[in-house]
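In this supplementary section we document a worked example of the pipeline. Step one takes a protein sequence of length 242 as its only input; no multiple sequence alignment statistics are reported here. Step two produces a three-dimensional model, which step three serialises into structure tokens for compact storage. The input and output of this example are shown verbatim.
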Amino acid sequence: MSAKSITNRIAVVTLVSLLGVGTSVAQSTYGYGSGPVGPVYTTPGAWGYGAAFRASTAAQGLLNGSAALTDAMGTYELNDGQAGILREQARSMDRENDLQQTEALQAQKKMWADARIQARKDREARAAEGQQLLSQRRATIYRQAYQLSTSDLNLKTGAIAWPVALKDARFQENRAQLEELFHQYVGYGSPEPRTAGEIARSVDQWARTLRNESSTMPREDYVAAQKFLLGLKYGAESVSAT
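The serialised model returned by step three reads:
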């Protein structure tokens, strides 16, 4: 039932009641007795109509009742409107809370992802640093193990005294290439890392060729040749390390 239907029904009931009371009053004015001339009308209300406010006539009671009803309906509408506002505010706050929770969750996920990425980078950096230290230590050990004497490799002039196993005519091109590289490496100012890399590649290539021909060489000559080649390789690295 709507608020308008309730208002109309209450107004009709009030009017009928007042009409009935008015009839009895009209009859009582012509009777005999010592009571009051007219009845006392009381109407409940939300803004002051009640036992303390008495109507002296039926019309005044009707007006007071109508005013109280209007006031009650206005209060109802006001309360309903305020309740609607509060509901909207609650929904808005709920949505805002959901948004904040979502943003906090996304920020947390991003922080976890960033932490995982940073941890991976740190591991890779430590691994690279460890690999570099290992290579440096290995190179130091190899240089000490395969170091050639100054009579075998003169690091000031680049002169090389080849062992017998490497003086074979088959290796003439290899010898010429390394002799030229060493002259360039130590004979023109500061050694260039690029030339040291070329020396290492040339030595590695010659060592592979030597392994393929190991069956045609005495074991002692083969071991001495391989050791001499490693001495050339790490001798060039020792120059660039100083």
